[in-house]
Each structure stands twice: as structure tokens, then as C-alpha cells.
Design a protein that fits this description.
The chain is mainly β and 829 residues long. It has a single domain, classed as Beta Barrel (Maltoporin, Chain A). The chain is 4% helix and 50% strand. The strands form eight sheets. The protein has a 22-stranded antiparallel β-barrel. Strands 3-9-10-7-8 form a five-stranded mixed β-sheet. A three-stranded antiparallel β-sheet has the order 4-5-6, with no helix packed on it. The radius of gyration is 28 Å and the shape is globular.
Length: 829
């Protein structure tokens, strides 16, 4: 059995924000729906306060990845085109897609409100008070889709007095970031805060012209359907984002408190940086390259590039007028007209520099994301309190991306999503029998509705996917947990959550180019010899298209329905052998709901779906604060049975979701913070994890091949590195006049990991060594401070995400950001 060692320092990183002179502070968290010292929570929790995040130059959720054990967080997923989309994995469980039909495996919460989509979940960390990362299934208190864990973001609470804090940051790639938060009391019982930020940064991958391209012909991009057309300059990987949050808190000293919060984020920036890694002459690329050279295989022979016959590129077959036919390209490079020649698609478009591309297509990602939250707290007396959290959120997202890295329209993707959600949660918390019993009971309601519309152009329009999809989810849940203090040294916890969920879906994906019919005509199908002026019903039926009157539609018509019922229990035992030491053992379950696959490239007479997945986890741990609070030392060991794994598999040109099988995940985490005194503190941790398939369902198996290690029993799960080590020494000293200088180093070693399900060799992430450094000076009065620092100073460049689109003709991915410097000026008054 191969062991995977994963380490990090994160669980106690928050302590360093206030550590000095042999004292390690802990933080209060709400991981169990009530306020507790993180050291008293029988869950593996990594918590960070706002100061610690700023010191480490962590400005988004994805930035937590290097400093949190057993956690992989990447900004962007394959062909998502936007860094606001998060790929989140905790202990080997997560999701690497953004589609509306796919639920995340790690729940992200903003002030207690669940963010249902991975789009926009990579939140900008504006006015953050703390972040809690809960590891392992959190099904009992947090619900479905927290099967890997949960990330809870808690924002700043308005103060009783007027205050202002802000900072301006500049740095590499023309970075300009401005952030400000003001606390404004409105009366003795009403206080408010306003936070705003803007961030503008040029991309790091430059688009350059392909030499001699002007001598070739190409169709304008507007001839291919897209969700959005636009080009945000000559660079990819840039940022142009604005955020705002307003909070009102009413509290008159009585039992009632109300918090109203509204947040708004808008960005319109360049696409996620994309780099062509390799090309393939299979299927579409091979067929296109043969077509422009006039190579015509015999009828029924698919050997030319292994794909559809080039006649499909002839254009206007049968006089079709209802599809987006382009001018004929068959034989254009061998005819007598030198002005209609076309560029082949091959590895000529792979540049020597990983930060350059020959792409010239759409280059834009637009996101509008906002929400309103109302939290009501009422102290019932007798050690009981009632809380209500009501929230409405909406996102509107459009992205257009050129993935082929060439001047051709060879692989262009674009998407539009319009989603709204409403949630209502009620919690009753309290204690009884002289605090021997602590409890939380609650109910939860959630509904979301919206659409995702895919547009994908393959091989100069040979296949033109047009995929509208509608989805709606309604969820009801009841939950409860009781902690019973049997003796001063023994506590037993038991809880559970019952969830009922109903999903509705309708897909209407089609190919606007009618490729199937053109191939059928070329191969002499008697029902499809005449395609004009319309496709006959006989031809439609013969080619397997399921909807009468809609000959281009792959998907069956009608609303599809799924219902899910789940009970997720948790049981744990905590032992307190001495002050500052807790031993615990727990059993917990979590699940993620199923859904439907939306990305078809051939017609089906049914709606392909996938079932829910489940995780059952046993965990044992130690949490300790030793040596007069100068040392925090925590250990967690766990084993998880992960069943019905939902993974994204490439089927031809279509990335589809299916249940892969079962995995066994075993791990060990050790996290520590040591403050020996004199202003020095050190964070460090080490861990061990083994995440492998023990059974792979037949349809999900991918045999090892020259390009991929495959999906077979014994194979590693994606996004789960073998080894991660993080150490962060921090030194703070007083200059004698009250001024404070802080020096911080943050080093992370991460072993290699697979970026995709099929374990494509060219997409494998190598082992990395990341070093961040910073130095800050705070003037004696604390009114202003200045920080200079650098991130990824070892200039490690590796693929953070990617796709093996072999049938489409390419393997591509996104490289990590290079070494960067920054300088920040902050003020407080």
C-alpha cells in the first residue's frame, strides 16, 4: 500500500496574528453552530483570522491551499475561464467542475449562508474576521454537499465606535488593489460598517500574433455562436474586480439582535490563463487537416485522422439553411485559389514560452454576484438562544474562452449562468443540567433555480454545441446534536440530520451544424439522402435524435425529476485527561446528491444521470495546549470509505459526470504552533494520507495508455498530493519607540498530484517548493504600516488545472502564477 503524506501548518496559523513572547492564542469558532474555543471542538478545524491572512498575502479562498493540511484549492477548473470558480478538495473529496448540474463536494459558507455554486465561491476576502476550514464529512450540522468538508467565511462585525482601516497595494503585473472598511455607529443601538475594494492586475500570459497568419483565411469568431464576445486585451490571467459589503446591526442591550448584510461583487476581466500543452490528430483535428488538403477517404472509411469524413466540411450539403454552415473548406489548400488557404491545426501553435499563446478568440469573464442576509438572534433565557438566518443570493455569469491557442476557431468555449437561491435556517442552541448538556437543534430550507447555457465550437464549426439547461433544487432538512458531559473528564456527542431533496432538470443540447446528418448523407443512409429544405422525420429517427420536430436536439424533451432522502449521523467521544488536553474519537457520515450529465455530443433516448455519493469516516485525535500556552500540538487520524464517487470523465469530446466506484482514504495530520518567546513563533505540521480506488465500476475504468495512467483499482484520486509540508517562522520585535517590525517566511513543499480523473501524464502537477516572504513596519501609534513581500519566490511553474481534449485535438491547462512582489501601505484610525 502506497502512503501519501500531506502536511500543513494551517490549523493553528491564526494564532500567530497575535502571538508574542511565549504566548499562543487560540480563536473562537462556530464549527458546531455555537461559539467555542477551536481547541475544544472535536473536529479537525483549521482557522485563520484576518491579520494572519493578510500577513500571508492570502486574498481569496484558493489562497488557503498552501497553508491548510489535506486541502487543495485552485482558482479555476478546466474550461471555466474564470478565477472566481473554485476547485475545492478536502482529504481527497471534492469537485473539479463548475456546471450547474454538478454540486460541490466542499461546502462554502458566507456568514452562515451556503453558496450553492462553485462559480463565485472563490470569494475575495474583503473585511474577513476569520475563516474556518472543517475537514471530513460535515453532513450532520452543515448538510449535503459537505461530504469532503466545509469552508466557513465570517466577515467583520461593526464596532461601537467610529473607525476606519484601509490599504493600498501595488506590485507585479501593474497590480493596484485598494481596500477600506469603516465602522459607523448610527445610534446607541444601531451600528453599521461599509467595506469596499477594487483590484486591477494585468494578466501574465501574453497573446502574440501567429507569424504569417494574415496569409490564411479564417471565419470571424462571430459566425460561431457564443454566450459572450469580447477581448479584454492582449493578456490572459488578469483581474479587474470590485466588491462591496454593508452591514447593519441592531442591538439595544436586550435579548434581541438583528444583523442585515448585503454584498455585491462585479468583475469583467480576461480569461483564466490557458496554455496549449500538446496537440492530437485524432478525430476532429485529423479530419480537418485531411479536409483542407483534399484527402477524401472511401465511403465508410473513418481512417483519415480517425474521425468523421472530411466531406462534412464541404458546406451547404443538401442546401441546408437552418445550420451555421461555413464556406466549403474541402481541398482549399490544393485548389487554384491561393486566397482561401487554411492553417492546419497541429503543434505549430505550441510556443516555447509557457507565458505566451497564439490565441486570438474570446478572452473575457464577466461575473455579477450579490446577496442579502438577515440574521436574527434572540436570547430565550435559561441558557437557550434562537437564531434565524434568511438569505437570498443571485449570480449572473458569462465567460468566453479560446482554448486552442491558435488563430483558428478550433476549441472555443463560452457559458452563461443565471442562478438565484433562497435559504432559511433556524437554530436553537443552549445548555441544561448546569451545562452538563449542550445542544443544537434546527431546521433548514433551501431552493435554487436557474440555467446554464453552453456554447462550444470544435474544429472550425464541424461541431457547434448549443446547450441550454434548466435546473431547480428544493431541499428540506432537520438536524440536531447533543453533547452530554458524563463526568468532568468524559463527554459524549450524538447527532444527525435528515434531508429530503427534489431536483428538476431539462436539457436541450444540440449541434447547430447537423454533423450527424451530414455524415449519414455521406455514408449513403437512404433516409437522409435529401436534407433540404428540412430533415425528414425518417432521417431524424434513423439517426437516433429523440425529439419530433427538433432534429438537432440531442436531449430528450421534458422535465426530469430526482428525489433524495438521507440521514447523516455523527457520534463522538471526548476525553479530558488534564487541563489543556482533549482526546476524541468520532464517526460521521456525509453525502452529495446526484444529477444529470448535460454535455452530450450524440443523441440519446434517455437523460443520462448519476447517483449520489456517500462518505463514512472514523476519526481520532488529540488537541492540546501545553507549556503554559506556549505550544499547541494537535493530531488527527482518519479513515474514510468513499462510495459512488462522482468524477468528470472525458467521453469523446464530452466531459461527462459518472459514478466511478469506491475509494478508501486514510490519513494522519499533526499540526503545531510553538512560541518560545522573544517575539519568535513557528508553525509546522506533517501528515500522511492514502487515497486510492478499491473498486472501479466498469464504465468508469480507463485503461492505462501512452497518454494516461488510467482509472483502475489502486489508482490515486485526483487533486490529492502525496506529501505536503509547510513551515512558517514569524519574528516580531519592538524597536524601542513603540514601532513594531514583523518578519515572516512561509515555505510549502507539495508532492506531485494528478490534475484530472484519467491521470493524464502531461497534466500531472510535479512536486513544488513555494516560498513567500514579507516584512512589515508599524509606526509607534499604530496609525499606519507598510509591508513589502514576495510570493512564489522560487518561481515554481506548474499546471493547476487542465483537460485532455484528445478527440478535439488538444491537451491544455493553466500554469500557476510566477514569482511576484508587492508593497502595501495600510492605515488605521
Amino acid at each position: 500500500m502506497k502512503l501519501k503524506l500531506t502536511t500543513s501548518i494551517g490549523a493553528m496559523a491564526i494564532a500567530l496574528s497575535s502571538v508574542a513572547y511565549a504566548q499562543v492564542d487560540t480563536i473562537t469558532v462556530t464549527a458546531q453552530k455555537r461559539e467555542e474555543n477551536v481547541q475544544d471542538v472535536p473536529i479537525a478545524v483549521s482557522a485563520f483570522d484576518g491579520d494572519a491572512l493578510q500577513e500571508r498575502a492570502v486574498t481569496s479562498v484558493a489562497g488557503l491551499s498552501n497553508i491548510t493540511p489535506n486541502v487543495s484549492l485552485d482558482a479555476g477548473t478546466p474550461f471555466s475561464g474564470d478565477t472566481a470558480v473554485i476547485s475545492a478538495y478536502i482529504r481527497g473529496i471534492g469537485a473539479n467542475d463548475f456546471a450547474f448540474n454538478i454540486d460541490p463536494g466542499v461546502g462554502v459558507y458566507l456568514d452562515g449562508v451556503y453558496l450553492a455554486r462553485s462559480i463565485g465561491a472563490n470569494q475575495d476576502l474583503l473585511d474577513v474576521e476569520r475563516i474556518e476550514v472543517l475537514k471530513g464529512p460535515q453532513g450532520t450540522l452543515f448538510g449535503r454537499n459537505t461530504i469532503g468538508g466545509a469552508i466557513s467565511i465570517v466577515t467583520h462585525e461593526p464596532g461601537d465606535e467610529f473607525s476606519f482601516s484601509g490599504d493600498v497595494t501595488t506590485g507585479s503585473f501593474e497590480l493596484l488593489q485598494i481596500r477600506a472598511t469603516a465602522d459607523i455607529p448610527l445610534s446607541d443601538s444601531l451600528k453599521s460598517s461599509i467595506s469596499v475594494s477594487m483590484k486591477d492586475r494585468r494578466g501574465y500570459l501574453k497573446r502574440i500574433p501567429y507569424p504569417g497568419f494574415e496569409n490564411y483565411n479564417v471565419e470571424p469568431i462571430q459566425t460561431m455562436r457564443a454566450a459572450i464576445y469580447g477581448n479584454q486585451g492582449d493578456y490572459e490571467g488578469g483581474t479587474d474586480a470590485k466588491n462591496a459589503r454593508i452591514k447593519l446591526v441592531y442591538e439595544d442591550g436586550g435579548p434581541f439582535k438583528a444583523t442585515l448584510s448585503g454584498d455585491y461583487a462585479f468583475s469583467k476581466q480576461s480569461q483564466l490563463a490557458n496554455k496549449l500543452v500538446a496537440t492530437s490528430d485524432a478525430v476532429f483535428a485529423g479530419s480537418y487537416n485531411c479536409a483542407i488538403e483534399g484527402i477524401q477517404p472511401p465511403a465508410g472509411d473513418m481512417s483519415c485522422g480517425g474521425g468523421p469524413p472530411p466531406i462534412a466540411y464541404a458546406g451547404g450539403i443538401g442546401g441546408l439553411t437552418w445550420v451555421a454552415d461555413n464556406p466549403p473548406i474541402f481541398g482549399v489548400n490544393t485548389d487554384a485559389d491561393p486566397y482561401n488557404d487554411r492553417l492546419p491545426y497541429d503543434d505549430r501553435f505550441i510556443t516555447d514560452d509557457i507565458d505566451t499563446s497564439y490565441a486570438n478568440g474570446n478572452n473575457v469573464a464577466r461575473l455579477e454576484n450579490y446577496g442579502v442576509h438577515l440574521t436574527l438572534d434572540y436570547d430565550l433565557g435559561a441558557n437557550a438562544a434562537l437564531k434565524s438566518i434568511s438569505a437570498y443570493r443571485h449570480l449572473d455569469w458569462d465567460v468566453g474562452m479560446d482554448l486552442d491557442n491558435s488563430p483558428l476557431n478550433f476549441l472555443h468555449t463560452s457559458f452563461t449562468t443565471d442562478q438565484w437561491q433562497f435559504s432559511q435556517e433556524v437554530q436553537l442552541t443552549g445548555s441544561a443540567l448546569d451545562e452538563r448538556i449542550n445542544y443544537v437543534f434546527g431546521g433548514y430550507y433551501f431552493v435554487e433555480e436557474g440555467d446554464l447555457h453552453d456554447f462550444v465550437t470544435f474544429a472550425e464549426g464541424l461541431l457547434q454545441v448549443d446547450g441550454p439547461n434548466y435546473l431547480k433544487t428544493t431541499n428540506y432538512a432537520g438536524f440536531g446534536q447533543i453533547d452530554f458531559k458524563v463526568t468532568d473528564w468524559l463527554t459524549v456527542t450524538a447527532g444527525g440530520r435528515y434531508t429530503h431533496e427534489k431536483k428538476l432538470f431539462e436539457g436541450a443540447q444540440s449541434d447547430r451544424n447537423g454533423l450527424n446528418y451530414k455524415i449519414a448523407q455521406q455514408f449513403g443512409d437512404p433516409d437522409c439522402m435529401s436534407l433540404a429544405p428540412t430533415i425528414s422525420e425518417a432521417c431524424r429517427i434513423a439517426q437516433g435524435f429523440p425529439v419530433p420536430g427538433e432534429p438537432l436536439r440531442y436531449y430528450i424533451e421534458g422535465i426530469q425529476t430526482k428525489k433524495f432522502n438521507n440521514f447523516s449521523p455523527k457520534v463522538s467521544v471526548q476525553v479530558f485527561p488534564t487541563d489543556g488536553v482533549m482526546l476524541y474519537g468520532s464517526y460521521s457520515e456525509g453525502y452529495r446528491t446526484g444529477g444529470w450529465t448535460t454535455r452530450l455530443s450524440n443523441p440519446l433516448d434517455y437523460a443520462p444521470d448519476f447517483d449520489e455519493e456517500n462518505a463514512t469516516s472514523w476519526e481520532g485525535g488529540l488537541k492540546s495546549t501545553l507549556f503554559d500556552n506556549s505550544l499547541l500540538f494537535n493530531v488527527a487520524a482518519f479513515t474514510t470509505k468513499y462510495e459512488g464517487i462522482q468524477l468528470n470523465f472525458q467521453q469523446g469530446v464530452s466531459p461527462t459526470i459518472q459514478n466511478a466506484g469506491t475509494a478508501r482514504i486514510k490519513g494522519l495530520e499533526v499540526e503545531t504552533v510553538y512560541a518560545p518567546g522573544g517575539g519568535l513563533s513557528i508553525n509546522a505540521s506533517v501528515g500522511l494520507i492514502n487515497a486510492e480506488y478499491i473498486d472501479v465500476l466498469g464504465p468508469a475504468q480507463v485503461a492505462p495508455n501512452p497518454l494516461q495512467a488510467g482509472v483502475i483499482p489502486g489508482a490515486d484520486l485526483p487533486k490529492t498530493p502525496d506529501f505536503k509540508f509547510n513551515v512558517s517562522p514569524r519574528y516580531e520585535f519592538n524597536m524601542g519607540n513603540g514601532a513594531i517590525v514583523t518578519l515572516l517566511a512561509d515555505y510549502t513543499h507539495t508532492a506531485s498530484m494528478w490534475n484530472d480523473t484519467e491521470r493524464t501524464f502531461l497534466l500531472q502537477r510535479p512536486s513544488t517548493d513555494i516560498l513567500n516572504l514579507s516584512a512589515s513596519y508599524e509606526e509607534p501609534g499604530g496609525r499606519w504600516n507598510i509591508t513589502v513581500g514576495g510570493t512564489n519566490l522560487t518561481d515554481e511553474r506548474y499546471l493547476t488545472t487542465g483537460q485532455a481534449q484528445i478527440a478535439g485535438g488538444q491537451i491544455y491547462g493553466t500554469y500557476s502564477r510566477p514569482a511576484e512582489w508587492y508593497a502595501r501601505l495600510g492605515v488605521n484610525f
